[in-house]
Here is the input.
Amino acid sequence: MPTHYNGTAREKRALNAWIKFKRAGITLGSRIGDSLRTFNLTESQFAVVELLYHLGPRNLSEISEKLLCTGGNLTTVVDNLEKQKLAKRIPSKTDRRQYEIHITQKGKKQIEKLFPAHLRRIVDEFSVLSASEQEEFSRLCKKLGLGNTNKNK
Here is the structure.
């Protein structure tokens, strides 16, 4: 549904793009996230376990930076992963004030079971776009993420 905002053509075009972008993201996230719930994981928990599996141990600030989430929320996510025995905190060898978050064997087994199906779901969802459209979409998302350096365009 397009915006009903009665602004300039530039404002309406940007607002319509924003609405479509947000709706697509929410809809896709919901459909892709369905498979995570069968493993009793939230999207944030899955993201942390997947990051640890593929990148190895990280401290909270590194995880927060990679996943673009707040430290407070991440602390709760890691607490819950520890309760499920999917991750554990280990004191840093180089900084006594820091903890590294490590994936456990149970976490590895769970992500190895879950990730292939999760990836297939993503590939399937994105199959509505051609390979070149997927590459263009990625390029445009990156451009949006980097921001507009010339605000008067």
User: Anything to note?
Assistant: Strands lie at 58-59, 87-91, 99-103. The chain has a mean pLDDT of 91.
